[in-house]
Amino acid sequence: MTDPADPGPQHDEDADERNDRNLKELDDEQDREELRTRYYGLLQELRVILPGVQVLLAFLLTVPFANRFPELDDAGRTLFGVALVGAWCAVVCLLTPAVFHRVSDRQARRARLRWAIRTTLGGLVLLAASLLAALLCVLRLVFGTPVAVLLVAPVTLVLIGLWVVAPLRIRLESHR
């Protein structure tokens, strides 16, 4: 049990301010540790995301060999194509920061981090498009187009809410 009078570990507010600085304010030499920490944090996040995206891609690559694939109409095949290409491009974008880490100039820390963040965000957008296209493709085959659209619409809103609105709201609140 903790002692209520004990404040616990001291909080270093200066460290928080340093870690919250905008990427443009960081210097490759002076802020080498912070840039390294941010980059490694991003790589850790990608290690969590990538297996799921790779499983989605692997699944999509096997779908054309399934018995009901020939039943897809042109719209279904287009949705499948969007899902497949989106998943493939998402994997490439989400792997790019690791490639930057191994291949790029080690001294260009800020530029590597900036591009890693951009490719990660691009990968997440492509993943969202792939997930929604795959879901719509499957639901159209199972329930028909009108019901599929009715089911995918709220899923799209949830995805936008959790992946776009909530993070932007947190960002705005933290800048106040």
Structural description of this entry:
- The chain is an all-alpha fold and 176 residues long.
- It has one domain.
- The chain is built from five helices and no strands.
- The protein has helices spanning 13-19, 32-62, 74-103, 109-143, 145-174.
- It is elongated and about 60 Å long.
- The model is unreliable at 1-18 (pLDDT under 50).
Rg from Cα: 21 Å
How would you sum up the global shape? Answer: elongated
Percent range of helical residues: over 70%
Percentage of residues in strands: under 5%
The average pLDDT value, as a whole number, equals 84
Tell me how many strands there are: 0
Largest sheet: none
Distance between the termini: 35 Å
Summing up helix and strand content along with how strands pair, one would put the structural category as mainly alpha
* Order of H and E elements: HHHHH
Integer count of domains: 1
Instruction: Note the total helix count.
Output: 5
- Low-confidence spans: pLDDT under 50, at least 5 residues? 1-18
Give a short summary of the structure:
By secondary structure, the protein is mostly helical. The protein has five helices and no strands. The protein has one domain (27-174).
